Amino acid sequence: MDNYKIEKGPSYYNQAYNSIKDMIFNGLLKPGDRIYESKLATEFQISRSPVREAIRSLEKDGLLFLTDKSKITVYQPTKKDIEDIYECRQALESQAARLTTRNASDKELQQIENILSETEKNIEHFDDNLVKTIISLNTQFHNLILNFSQNNRLQKQSNDLSTLTFFYRSIDVYEHDRNMDIFNYHLEIFHYIKKRDEEKAAKTMYSHIGNDLKHLKDILSIECTI
Predict the structure, then answer these.
(1) Which residues form a coiled coil (predicted)?
(2) How many angstroms separate the CA atoms of 37 and 39, rounded?
(3) At what angle do helices 162-171 and 198-225 cross, to 10 degrees?
(4) Which stretches does DSSP call E strand in 27-118?
(5) How would you label 183-205 residue by residue, b for 16+ Cβ within 10 Å and e otherwise?
(6) CA-CA distance, 161 to 31, in Å (whole number)?
(7) Whole-number Å distance between alpha carbons of 98 and 80
(8) What fold does the segment set 79-225 form as a domain?
(9) What is d(CA 113, CA 109) in angstroms, rounded to the nearest whole number?
């Protein structure tokens, strides 16, 4: 827990929010675990007020859940919830790929290509210490395509799903073959974007997110049988 100790600073709320979120993403707080406001405040060595604010924000993000008995627990993914969210992502991000193919400048395309080059380097030297870096790079790839779509409404709707999307990425299995599967999809998507082929860019993005959905459902099935 020492890694999550709150430092003295101007915004205890932000620090509490980020610390709790990191504890969830890193598995220190697991799906279904109950959250105690007073316990976190004691561990962070701050008052309960900023912790309470952080918990409310994380509820809005979907990472914490208030039960019928007013207990706060860590979000526990279900197949149905993942299906709903990834179906939304398929619709939004395939359209983003189409719009980015149409609207992105050569300079913006270079930014996407730089992310892919950095991802490839990390996969070549892959070990467990690089998992977080690769997740971050994969997230940046998708975010750039959303940003370069030039559709603010689409970006806002995608942003509403971003925290849970990152949560799902954090529970994915990142072995070398899985990394290559994701990377090859990203390469193919970028290939069509660079060729300005809107239809194929959109279809490949749709297929890529569908593949991620299948993989996550398989992981959940395995976990449920252990």
Answers:
(1) 102-129
(2) 6
(3) 60
(4) 34-35, 64-66, 72-74
(5) bebbebbbebbbeeebebbbbbb
(6) 18
(7) 27
(8) Four Helix Bundle (Hemerythrin (Met), subunit A) (1.20.120)
(9) 6
Q: Which two tokens stand for residue 136?
A: 């971050």
Q: How many CB atoms lie within 10 A of CB 139?
A: 15
For 109-168, write each residue's pLDDT tens digit: 999 999 999 999 999 988 888 888 999 999 999 999 999 999 999 999 999 999 999 999
Numbered ranges of CATH 1.10.10.10 in the chain: 2-74
For the segment 38-57, the average pLDDT, to the nearest whole number, is 94
48-61 and 37-44 helices, crossing angle to 10°? 120
Instruction: Please name which of 161, 180, 28, 33 lies closest in space to residue 92, comparing C-alpha atoms.
Output: 161
pTM (predicted TM-score): 0.85
CA–CA gap between residue 207 and residue 191 (Å, rounded): 15
Tokens of 31: 């799906």
Residue 171 to residue 60: CA distance in whole angstroms: 20
